[in-house]
Amino acid sequence: MDSVFDWLVGHIGEFRHFTYVVTYLILVISGAGLPIPEEAVLLSSGYLAYEGVTDIRITIPVVLLGMISGDLVTYFIGRKAGHGLFRHPLLRWAMTEERLERIRRYYAKYGKKTVFFSRYVAGIRQASYFMAGAMRVPLKDFLMMEMLAAFSTGPISIYVAYRLGAHIDHVLEFFGRARVVLLAAIVVGLVVFVAWHYLRARNHTKPIAIGDPPPKGEGKDQSVKNG
């Protein structure tokens, strides 16, 4: 992330009269899938404010607007082109109707939580928001959870780089490590989540052996019928 940070600081700083516009556009393109780490953009925005190139009071709302706009682009691409893409011959073998139906049920039940937590992981975020649009997650639900997640991360990263600009190397090192820890925690959480649902589904479909006691209430109903 250090090299991307240095590149952003060097190039965005050159557009002194258009720094906010350039920052906004980079975030929109990044949110739509361009492989630029969003965290690097947030930290470089805070550092530029520390250097006096920009005003922190303008930087934070501009960055938030860029984050939200980029995610909305991905959402609407999925909403507009998702179903047509899944019907393409190259993807139809992987995205069968059965799999799509499982994904629809998942987003119907966990869509809002997925939108919120996906924001913290680049790469996963774009795919998740594309699927949220394709699976027709309501726009108001998507926007509400996306904004909650953006507001919980964006201003903090910017302000830390702004206040600790003199120690920006340590800030970059800290955020790099925190990103790895967060990704590991999310992976572990996903594994636990999938394993729990698998075991739960397996228990629900467990066959009843001959001689096992009848399910609760069944014997009582049978005795009433016999009476």
Helix and strand content put the structural class at mainly alpha
The biggest sheet amounts to: none
Low-confidence spans: pLDDT under 50, at least 5 residues?
none
**In percent, how helical is the residue content?**
over 70%
Content of β-strand: under 5%
Number of strands: 0
Q: How many domain units?
A: 1
Q: What are the key terms here?
A:
78% helix; 10 helices; 0% strand; 227 residues; globular; mainly alpha
Description:
The model has no long low-confidence stretch (mean pLDDT 81). The chain has ten helices and no strands. The chain starts with a helix and ends with a helix. It is mainly alpha-helical and 227 residues long. It has one domain. It is globular. The chain is 78% helix and 0% strand.
